[in-house]
Amino acid sequence: MTTSPTESRAATPTGSTASPSTASAPATTPSAATSSDTISSDTTSPATTDRTTLPSYVGLHPGEPNLMEPELLDNPYTGYGTLREQGPLVRARFIDDSPIWLVTRFDVVREVMRDQRFVNNPTLVPGIGADKDPRARLIELFGIPEDLTPYLADTILTSDPPDHTRLRRLVSRAFTARRIQDLRPRVEQITDALLERLPDHAEDGVVDLVEHFAYPLPITVICELVGIDEEDRTLWRRFGADLASLNPKRIGATMPEMIAHIHEVIDERRAALRDDLLSGLIRAQDDDGGRLSDVEMVTLVLTLVLAGHETTAHLISNGTLALLTHPDQRRLIDEDPALLPRAVHELMRWCGPIQATQLRYAMEDTEVAGVQVRQGEALMFSLVAANHDPRHYTGPERLDLTRQPAGRAEDHVGFGHGMHYCLGASLARQEAEVAYGKLLTRYPDLELALTPEQLEDQERLRQPGAWRLRRLPLKLHARS
Questions:
Q1: What phi, psi does 434 have (nearest 5°)?
Q2: CA 455 to chain CA mean position, Å
C-alpha cells in the first residue's frame, strides 16, 4: 500500500486520532537546522528546529498549537490531519506566537481562498493602518532592516486588488500557456545537460540530486525567462538559501545585498534592453511610470526568481523520493509516459513543498464554516491538511498517480486557488514533468543511497509550512 510521506517512519500514522501536544517545558535556546548551518540561539527567533530545542513561547497556550511544535514539524501529515479532524477552522499560533485561525478542510480552503473579504495586506482592514501592521513584528524578528520593509510589504504576493491585478497583468504574458509550451525545448535541453553531468558530481558513486539537478534546472529556466545573467545565478542560489533558512542573521545580512543587486541589474538592463521579462517591465515603467514603481519592479524580480526556483526544486526532489519509494507507481510512468502530467498533480498533492500559505486577514466580521471570524483576525490555509482531506479524497494517504482524471482541472490546492493562484504553476508543472521523465529514463536503476528513514531523520528540513529535503543522495546507474 502506498502510504503518506511520513508513514514509513516510526511515526504516528496518518489518520491517527492522537492529538498534537504542546511542549511540557519551553526550552530556552531554540537553535535550528537550516539548509547549511544552524540558527543563532536568539530565543525569539522563528526558525526551523532540530527537535532538541524550541522557541520559548511554544506550549504557552494549551489548546492552541504553535506551528513550531515538534508534532507539526516532524510529521505534518499526521499533525495537521489531527487538527483537521477537530474542525474546519482551528485556533492556533503563528511562528511569532500571534493567534491565527488555521483553515484545514479542502472545500473550506477553496471557498475562503476565493472570498475577497479576506485580504493579504492587513493595513486594508479598517482600524489597522500602517502604524499597526502586524507584519512589522515578523520583519523585526527576521532581522530585516526597517528601511527595507516596503520590499516585503508591497509585493505581488502581499497585495490585493487593484494593485495585485495591475502587477499580475504586467508579468502574466510571460506565463501564458503558449509561452510555456514554447519554453519546453529549452527546458528539455537544460535537463539533458544536467543529467549528462550528474556522474561528474558523484562521490563514491553517490550524487546529491538537490544540489546538482533539482535546483539548477528551475533556477536556470527562471533566470533566463526573467533576464538574470548566468554569472549571477550562483548568487541567487545563495539568496534563496539564506531567505529559506529562516535564520535572522542570514536574512538580515542578505536582504540589503539582494535589494542592492536587483537595483544594479535593473540599471544595467535599462542601458541595454533585451527580449526578456525584466526588459519588458522597464519598458512598461518608461511608457507609463505610474504603472510600476521602482520598489514594485524590484519586488517583482525578487519574487519571480525566488518563487520560480525554490518551490520547483523541492517538488522535483520530493517527487523523486516518492517515486523511488513507490516502485509500483514509478512503473506506471515507465509503462505510460503520457501519465506524467497527472503524476505531477498527484505528487504536488501528496508531497508538495508548500504546506501552508501566508496569512490573510478578515476585512469584517465573517462566519466561516460555522465559526465566527472577527474583523482583523488572521487566517492561514493548511494545504497539507486540505490536500489529505478524506472528505474530498478516497484514501488520501495513498499515492496514486492515476488519481486525477486526464484533462480535468487540478483537484488539489498545492498551487493555491482563486485570484492568488500561483502565477508560475504551469511552468513548475512542465519542469517537473520533464525532470521526472528524463531522470528516470536516463537512470532507470536509480536508487536511494540512504534508507527512507535515514533521509527523514538526517536530511529533512523541519520548517513550518514547508516540506523540503536538504539533500537527496542517490546512486546512479546509467542505461548503456
A1: -65, -45
A2: 20
Report which residue type is found at 83. Answer: L
| Prediction pTM value | 0.87
From residue 202, alpha-carbon distances to 41, 206, 426, 474 in Å are 35, 5, 31, 9
CB 373 within 8 A of CB 334: no
Q: What grid cell was written down for 142? A: 527576521
C-alpha–C-alpha distance, residues 416 and 402, integer Å: 21
Buried b (16+ CB within 10 A) or exposed e, 266-303: beebeeeeeebbbbbbbebbeeeeeebeeebbbbbbbb
Which grid coordinates belong to 258?
539582494
Q: What residues form DSSP beta bridges with 33?
A: 38
| Inter-CA distances, 424 with 175, 217, 427, 430, 431, Å | 6, 15, 5, 10, 11
Residue with the three cell numbers 536516463:
442
Query: pLDDT for 369-388, tens place per residue?
Result: 999 999 999 999 999 999 99
- Gap between the Cα atoms of 132 and 198, Å rounded: 51
Over the stretch 103-146, which tens digit does the pLDDT of each residue have?
999 999 999 999 999 999 999 999 887 778 888 888 888 888 88
147 vs 126: CA distance, rounded Å: 25
Nearest Cα residue to 412 out of 182, 126, 106:
106
